[in-house]
Write a structure and sequence with these properties.
Blueprint: H1 2-28, H2 36-48, H3 67-75, E1 82-84, H4 88-97, E2 103-106, H5 117-123, E3 127-133, H6 136-146, E4 155-159, E5 167-168, E6 178-182, E7 184-185, E8 196-200, H7 210-218, E9 225-231, E10 247-249, E11 254-259, H8 261-268, E12 271-273, E13 278-282, E14 310-315, E15 319-324, E16 337-342, H9 348-359, E17 367-370, H10 380-389, E18 395-398, H11 405-411, E19 414-415, E20 420-421, E21 428-432, H12 441-460, E22 463-469, H13 478-486, E23 490-497
Parallel strand pairs: 1-2, 2-3, 3-4, 4-6, 5-7, 6-8, 8-9, 9-11, 10-12, 11-13, 13-16, 14-17, 17-18, 18-21, 21-22, 22-23
Antiparallel strand pairs: 14-15, 15-16, 19-20
Length: about 500
């Protein structure tokens, strides 16, 4: 068959020539001018898509584009360090390609373990991170194989499906720095030098005690984040008198606790937070705010609560927020919040007004935000109590309320302790309803607002600014706005914003 062999040989030569031409064309493509380091970064993004909920149809397609891309991909062992325990085919390939790179074990969702554990045992010394969501039996099987070799493990995130009992794993983790457990417990005495701690869904009998948590905090001076969700202590504890008075966490950025009042009080009794720590508490509060803090003040500055840089208070029906200096109205920026409490029972004006002087220096509060519903059925005596504490307030912002009569009455009243109108330093007031229109605002409240402004002008002078954001009818009826300016009820800015901004 000489003719067949000749044709086959010719085909092979043409194929090689075509391959050479394609390589040269690829080299001339604009993307070929990118350095290998940039392409490697792009490929790292492509690898990350393999662990999302919507996986690409051709999962390793970029490795088949050209010889150059394939060479860069296969020579970069760090691209293959994440091992999906629920995809045996890819896991085997990634273990081979990762060479000696530190490994991360992952499971994108709860699924049975498919990678044989004997393969994991061989590579256990390379484990740096474990982030898995597995059924309890699969979780036990995993750590039975890798547990004895966790000396290099720095990040541990374990989650099991919601169950009535907690999975207790007897695995010492002295080198873990980031610990996230959901329904799983570990030997708490082995936790040290943590930078992040998150515990959720752990039964009482497996929950670390206050003493064990204190031990973790003392031995983790560089903690940056603590989250304790659904955290309940089995029995009351009295801290030992031999322990130091305060546990200072100078680097802590976030402390979030969801619990009952007894547990919160016990946990916060000896903590000393820096002035930049954001404290978030979730509790069904049955008493005043300050009762949560055994030292009668926020734990940010135990020696001088008046040092805390709180400038804004935001009151809602079921939450209270204390915001730091410089926060703009209705700010949702987490860095602006120093303390936030949400409760299944109402908080609002009642408990906040009675606790204010125990939590911060009210004379430094210059901005008050009354959120939707907080003025509902509030007795005017409560507003008097709050306003009498805030005699240096400069700005008042009011979100949607069906009734402003009580508020306007309070702003037209004399404080008997000072013989001046309440909020004597008030210069700015704003009304807003984010997400909708405060319907009929102009026809229902504009006249009452102007009467209040006239009353205050006679006694204190005009305000600096009034702002309306999404207040129905104000934009159409600008006559009242012009009247405010003509009568000199407002010295400076009168803002009317129907959307695309905030007061």
């Amino acid at each position: 068959m000489p003719e067949f062999r000749n044709l086959r040989g010719g085909e092979e030569r043409l194929t090689l020539m075509l391959s050479s031409v394609r390589c040269k064309l690829n080299d001339l493509a604009p993307i070929a001018s990118l350095p290998p380091e940039i392409l490697e970064q792009v490929f790292d993004i492509c690898v990350s898509w393999l662990y999302g909920y919507q996986k690409p149809k051709h999962r390793l397609a970029w490795t088949q584009v050209c010889q150059s891309w394939r060479r860069i991909s296969l020579s970069s062992s760090r691209l293959w360090h994440r091992i999906d325990l629920c995809d045996a085919r890819l896991a085997d390939e990634f273990l081979l390609r990762s060479k000696q790179t530190p490994l991360s074990l992952v499971t994108p969702c709860c699924s049975p373990l498919k990678l044989t554990t004997d393969k994991l045992t061989i590579h256990a010394h390379r484990l740096r991170s474990i982030d898995v969501f597995l059924p309890p039996d699969e979780m036990v099987q995993l750590f039975r194989s890798v547990g004895p070799n966790l000396g290099s493990l720095a990040s541990l995130s374990l989650k099991i499906p919601p169950m009535s009992s907690t999975l207790s794993l007897n695995i010492p983790i002295p080198f873990v720095r980031r610990l996230n457990l959901d329904g799983v417990s570990v030997p708490w005495e082995t936790c040290q030098n943590l930078t992040s701690l998150s515990l959720r869904g752990i039964n009482k009998e497996y929950t670390p005690s206050v003493s064990e948590l204190y031990h973790i905090f003392i031995n983790s001076p560089h903690l940056k984040s603590i989250r304790l969700e659904g955290f309940t202590l089995p029995t009351p504890e009295v801290p030992s008198s031999l322990e130091p008075e305060f546990i200072h966490l100078p680097h802590l950025a976030d402390l979030t606790i969801s619990s009952d009042t007894h547990t919160l009080t016990a946990l916060l009794s000896r903590l000393s937070l820096n002035l930049n720590t954001r404290l978030q508490l979730h509790v069904s509060l049955s008493d005043d705010l300050h009762t949560l803090f055994p030292r009668s003040g926020l734990p940010h500055a135990p020696n001088n609560a008046y040092m805390i840089p709180i400038q804004t208070i935001r009151l809602s029906q079921y939450s209270t927020h204390f915001l730091r200096t410089g926060a703009h109205p209705w700010s949702s920026n987490p860095t602006h919040h120093i303390f936030a409490l949400s409760s299944a029972a109402p908080v609002g004006l009642t408990r906040t007004s009675r606790s204010l002087v125990r939590l911060c220096n009210p004379h430094k509060i210059t901005q008050l935000e009354l959120n939707t519903g907080v003025l509902h059925d509030v007795p005017i005596s409560l507003l008097y109590t709050l306003f009498s504490c805030l005699n240096t307030l400069e700005a008042l912002y009011v979100a949607f309320h069906s009734d402003l009569e009580t508020l306007f009455t309070a702003l037209r009243s004399i404080d008997p302790s000072t013989a001046l109108p309440y909020l004597p330093t008030l210069t700015r007031i704003g009304f807003s309803r984010p997400g909708d229109i405060w319907r009929h605002f102009a026809t229902r409240w504009m006249r009452d607002l102007m009467e209040m402004l006239r009353w205050r002008k006679e006694r204190l002078g005009p305000l600096e600014s009034v702002c309306f954001w999404r207040c129905g009818g104000v934009f159409e009826g600008l006559g009242e706005v012009r009247e405010m300016q003509e009568e000199g009820l407002v010295r400076g800015f009168v803002g009317v914003l129907e959307g695309g901004g905030k007061c």
